[in-house]
Amino acid sequence: NTSEYCSSIAISELSADVLRDLPTAQRFALDIGGSLSKIVYQSKRKWRKTFVVYDENTDSHLYSTQELEKEADCLHFIKFETRLLENCLDFIYDNLKGSDGRGLEILRNSPLRVTGGGAHKYRLAIEAKLGCVVEKEDEMTCLVRGCAFMLKHIPGELFSYEHDSSPPCCFADELSDGGEPFLLVNIGSGVSMLKVENETTFTRIGGTSLGGGTFWGLGSLLAGTSDFDELLEIASQGDHRNVDMLVGDIYGSESASSVHGLSADIIASSFGKASKADCKEFSKPDLLRSLLITVSNNIGQLAFLYASRHQLRRIVFAGFFIRGHLLTMRTLTYGVNFWSQGSVKAYFLRHEGYLGAIGAFVRGLEKDRRIGVLTGSWAENLCTSSSFDVGSWQGMAALELDKRKELTDFPLLRDRLDYVPDTWDLSQSCQQFQAAFQSARLNPPPSQDLSAREYWLNCFEASIDRHQQRAVLSQPDSPSATERGEAFRLAYQNFFKEARANPVAFGQLTVRRILDVQEHCLRESGFPDPFWVLKREENEVALDGLQSRLSHLASLPSADLPAALIRGLLGGNVFDWGAGRVAELLAEHGKQFGLNEAMEQLQPRPWLVDDLDAWTSRLKAGVYTCAIVFVDNSGCDLLLGVLPFAIDLLDRGVKVILAANHGPALNDVTIFELRALIRRVGSFVPRVADALSSGRLLLAGTGSSSPCLDLRYVSVEVADACRQEQVDLVVIEGMGRAVHTNLYAKFSCDCLKLAVLKNAWLADRLGGNLFSVICSFEPAAAAAVG
């Protein structure tokens, strides 16, 4: 029993949630520092997954589904105080021994990789307690490998400190592709400066002895306490101007600006005032603040000088000295900005404390020739990982990464580094998106859009009960469904509580992130696909109406067909159970609310964004070779909206790739459901069967399990198909994929974005009304000039 064990050894930080998969651990690595230690271990996690079973001989249902358990790899990272290391080792030993001893056997099959200053100090204790061989890994190598791993796999890992923003974190994605060298500054007791060219190539180009140990040592002498976090807390309460001599103190505040262009508040001499007064006159907070700024400014200046010497434009700071403290990040950033005059950018990492541990883990896999364990992509589990509390450190913390399909960049993005998937950053000011909204011909948000954050948090929190009820109803034969539904509700509510208190708790706060947390909480609670029954019912109803819809379209004059297809696609997109108003309409009218009723809800032309005429003209020119269509909802959306649109493209000689989610999200169609549906359509629509068999109609999974679309992470299958088939048209439909994300994404080919605004607040913000239409056609030439 975890709680009883923790009570007996007085480690209240250890919990069943943090170490829940320890009995199935496959391998470990440790990073032991002077004050903090980190463990990373790989385990096998069992998930409930929905499998689609298609039987063309059955008349009962279009297809059936089965929920089965499936194992998947997980990486767990745990951070705790080094003073608890021996107790933690006891805890690990007991859990591994309890799994029929197999866990201990696996652990002892290969050396335990350990890095950090404590690797030598605790080697004998680790070997004695766990019965394994400890192999020390180089600290700098582990740091670089860990940094590369985090930047590659965790979106929003990198951020800069922006003093004028609230909270002061601005997330970036500039180094995730590993394309540009950068300076990695590791601030431990001393400071090491590393020029990082890629994950395996780096050079230590310099350093300084004045680092975290300097602040810790001198601070302890000045304040009478050796607790590092307490020293930082005391420093945050001080005013360095009472201790430091400023330019204004020497020349006077009015004439200071005439002295070499320096402002009066620039520090002329750190601790300069101490030479002219009794030190007893200075408070501990003022002295520690001055000391922190002295050390940080020195590191910042040296980092800039090394970066300039090696033509590096980006500096990433890491090490125990930072630990998420705002004052530390502010002073380091100020130093870099001041000396570089803004030409060099300072960055920090959300999970910088785990770099050494994951680096040691990777090195162990390489040496054991098992690096295949890390192939594919990894995603942060937003339900089980500890939040990022910028400004403080809260004892034990955890991070969990779940293995997923191998993902890559969407190859038709105009510029991968310029691509920003999300339309709103709810974490802070929206000023950075002003120009993008104007280029999309929509009303830009105000520069400070804090009401947007509160609206979307309230909006999605209000939907919890509805999703909880649907999740429970999706498993009528499970005696634990009600209990697990309550677990989902509590987990999701906890996210909203944290997001309100700290908007950057899980990285950049966006609508996409909120929806992803919802899906993670459902999956963790054992509900892999709460909408599966509803989706199947809607697919069957829509399938019954497909022949009639195709016949109607065939009866139209050819000149009217493109507009009718677009209206049908937009009408189908109304069927979105993730939108509260639509859910009410569908619940109220049931099967009486069909495609025609949905089209009646649409805004009359001219639409909010109306490029229908431009699209029609381009379509009739017959310029396309292959189109990829990112599909959205099941039922009417897919079968009566998207599919007729795709059939028309096929009739015009254009190959079509229909791309659907790999995993369930709301009532979005999955690739497995899509395959079953298209096979059934092919049984009575020969054009579809012929296109499928000849390879002119392709079906691909995107690798996503989200209602939104982040084109930095698509399946290799989709990326390869775009290259091989020479895709020259991208079609994105739906509010999640074309409005909440990708509204101002630019592509190297023509792009058609289609969505109905099914949220009144959002429509008003964009200058429209409920059910306003976005039909945005962006030719490649327009995309090229932005």
UniProtKB/TrEMBL annotation:
The keyword Hydrolase applies. GO terms for biological process: coenzyme A biosynthetic process. Pathway: Cofactor biosynthesis; coenzyme A biosynthesis; CoA from (R)-pantothenate: step 1/5. Its EC number is 2.7.1.33. SUPFAM superfamilies: Actin-like ATPase domain (SSF53067), AF1104-like (SSF111321). The keyword Flavoprotein does not apply. Its cofactor is Mn(2+); Ni(2+). Gene3D superfamilies: 3.30.420.40, 3.30.420.510, AF1104-like (1.20.1700.10), Uncharacterised protein PF01937, DUF89, domain 3 (3.40.50.10880). Its main location: cytoplasm. It is found in: Cytoplasm. Phosphatase which shows a preference for 4'-phosphopantetheine and its oxidatively damaged forms (sulfonate or S-sulfonate), providing strong indirect evidence that the phosphatase activity pre-empts damage in the coenzyme A (CoA) pathway. Hydrolyzing excess 4'-phosphopantetheine could constitute a directed overflow mechanism to prevent its oxidation to the S-sulfonate, sulfonate, or other forms. Hydrolyzing 4'-phosphopantetheine sulfonate or S-sulfonate would forestall their conversion to inactive forms of CoA and acyl carrier protein. Homodimer. Interacts with PKM. Belongs to the type II pantothenate kinase family. This is 4'-phosphopantetheine phosphatase. It comes from Macrostomum lignano.
